[in-house]
Amino acid sequence: MRYGYFDDDRREYVIERPDTPLPWINYLGLDAYVGVISNTAGGYSYYRDARLRRITRYRYNNAPLDSGGRYIYLRDNSSGEYWSPTWQPTQRALDTYECRHGLSYTLIGSSYAGLRAEILYMVPLGETLEVWRLRLTNERDTPADMSVFSSVEFCLWAAQDAMTNFQRNYSTGEVEVDDGVIYHKTEYRERRDHVAYFACSEPLAGFDTQRDTFLGPYRGWDRPAAVERGESFNSVAHGWAPHGSHHVHLALAPGETREVIFVLGYWENPPDQKFDPPGSHIVNKTFVRPVINRWLRPETVEDGFERLRQSWTSLLSPLQVDTPDADTDRMVNIWNPYQCMVTFNVSRSVSLYESGIGRGMGFRDSNQDLLGFVHMVPERARERILDIAATQLATGGAYHQYQPLTKRGNNVLGSGFNDDPLWLILGVSAYLKETGDASILDEQVPYDNAADSAAPLYEHLERSLGYTLDRLGPHGLPLIGRADWNDCLNLNCFSETPGETFQTTANKNGGAAESVFIAGLFVQAAKELAGIADLRGLAEDAISHQAEAEKMAGVIAEHAWDGAWFRRAYDYFGNVVGSSENDEGQIYVEPQGMCVLSGIGVQNGLATKALHSVREHLATSHGIVLMQPAYSRYHVELGEISSYPPGYKENAGVFCHTNPWVMIAEAMVGNGDGAFGYYKSINPSAREEISEIHRCEPYVYAQMIAGKDAPTHGEAKNSWLTGTAAWNFVAISQWILGIRAELDGLRIDPVLPDSWPGFTATRRFRGATYEISVTRQTTTGGRVSHLVVDGKPIDGTLLPVAPSGAVVQVAAVIA
Ligand code: GLC
Ligand code: GLC
Q: Whole-angstrom Cα distance, residue 104 to residue 15?
């Protein structure tokens, strides 16, 4: 069953009832100021770092689900009746309800008792604030005497501390109310220079800044005392829980529409001009007030909304496709790149599944996020690459994560995830292929942010490869360290203590656990680096990296082929993992995907065999599970993977991130139906009709869908923040549709499902626009052998780079 529908023309998903199986969320803000918003206006906002600079408070795992957010209450003063136009938190049954999640904005509309409300929530481009625009229409034939109350709960900046250290925080909260604006200024004394503010376009009938006064003691958001009685308390917070609420009176004639704008924002003052008058403790409002005034004007908001929409039209313009399949079109053209933008921005930090407290930016994750993002804003990808590389260690290793506010490696998690450094090569390579900008390789980048250690980025890439080569095990395969891509395959951990995290527990020395996955990734990375070396004219480097790739491929063939698939690893004791010799966990998806996509076994038939085994043992109608058979008990020598119940997460869940590797592999061996079948099985739009099973948003990928061993097979979790976004974009656009940036041009090599007669696409690449049309002349299979470019045939499938500004017509025939 569906809970809404796609409005492709407006690039919105329209939710038609508020009680979706889980909160269905969206993101506001593309840069420094970011908010998460659900279809009932739940969620929170932060500035740059969700852990350290949280603006509004949120309680995770709450009951009722998703309470706390950007709330507006409407109150009919003649009857005293009040409700939430966003359904939450009062949950009054509305006469109509509609939530439109668009690209970086959300519109929630409803009507109740003859009053129609529509609220636009957005973060305007380049601003550190969010706008809520309420339009209220009186559809009655009598006048309406209405009260509007707003409500946000401020977070005392450091999100973890604000939730846990209340013996202190109950005494620190401070606010100011000045000229209708509520300023949250906790700790705006000597060490902080920032405040949050909450403003309203209308004259106030009252305000509240102390949560427990606004709500009333022992009450929740569903029946605030101020709203119930129809009058604010004008409370000023001293300690406890600072809060922002405005009260506005609106008298609406029949048919009349009124607009009320609320602006919630973040502001930093220059340290030497914090106070006004100097020497006082009063916030200097000289700099922020003009910004507030501007955004309280309807025309600024309208114009800001228009600019936001236009910016998305341009962000999406590098690739637009028209295929026979609507689920493909809307994911490729709209939602998948949108999700890639969000994962690029917030990494794995903030959603309704990630608290924004625990995790910074992943080294591995952020490099992979680049793969789906680089074509949209290459300059930001460039900056990100340099930030990531600056956290690399001099050994070539990497911190597993870094904090976005400081851009420093995170010591708590440390390093030793031995796949991490190799992803940097894939990230840089994707950037070079998209832009051709080889100057990035000469950028001076420090190791571990130590200024005196700067070396050209190219050297960082060399050290990444070297890091693997310096750490080979007894079979000549790379040592796994703490873990590889699979964070939960902890072969050196041997944890017996409840509650200990597998990610940081001291590893046991003396073993030599090896990873076939890293070996496959190494082959790919070494080949990519060979190409990069060639680009720099370093022919000898190129030859040696190519030789390293071949050597590692040889080691895989000798020690990692199990007879019908690639093995997964060798454990601490040298025993095989992911082999028919094992009783559980006999076959894993990761090495099948990664080895084949790095070209191993494509010529000699091993690839086809491995993919056949994937189909036989791992494929389900809800996607490809991570491994089989699931671990039924804890294996101390394997770690966290075997701590999950069968069918969930890495223990044989459909870990969606791995599925596109198999799609790419299928495309590489020419199996279009196979590749596309896998693509459709996890495409969220194609799963819309089973929303009651899938439960997560139908417009974005989730990290995981419960596997066939789980009682809830087909149920998704952890939507939004997952490498699934970038990799699916790569799989469908570059390998199935086959439009692929390479170092010296644009490859057009589609591997389509048999039922497709072809497709058309527009791809903007290095300043030129390619109008591509692909048509099929075979009934099954087939590949493109040559292209017709502006009417002239050329051999092969590589389009040379056209001059910037050129519009190039490309025709390709699958025969
Ligand atoms: C999570 C992590 C990612 C890891 C994957 C598999 O998605 O963010 O880094 O590769 O899990 O364990
Ligand atoms: C947990 C998750 C795994 C994730 C890891 C990151 O182990 O199960 O998916 O990659 O945390 O820290």
A: 16
